Write a sequence for this structure.
């Protein structure tokens, strides 16, 4: 999974990705980043391409993953 965030994003700061395995956190406002630029952040992109745009839904997914660890 990929989590797209910005450093100056209040909603991104509310996410709790700790202890979530197979998660790549991508800060799209870094000068060396030149990939997907979503219209809004945070965005969680699943391995099959599905994108989750809601921060509460993203945290719910992270909580379910942590339960299975």
């Amino acid at each position: 999974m990929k989590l797209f965030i910005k450093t100056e994003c209040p909603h991104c700061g509310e996410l709790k990705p700790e202890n979530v395995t197979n998660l790549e956190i991508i800060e799209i406002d870094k000068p060396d980043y030149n990939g997907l630029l979503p219209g809004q952040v945070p965005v969680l992109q699943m391995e099959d391409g599905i994108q989750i745009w809601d921060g509460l839904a993203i945290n719910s997914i992270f909580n379910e993953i942590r339960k299975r660890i």
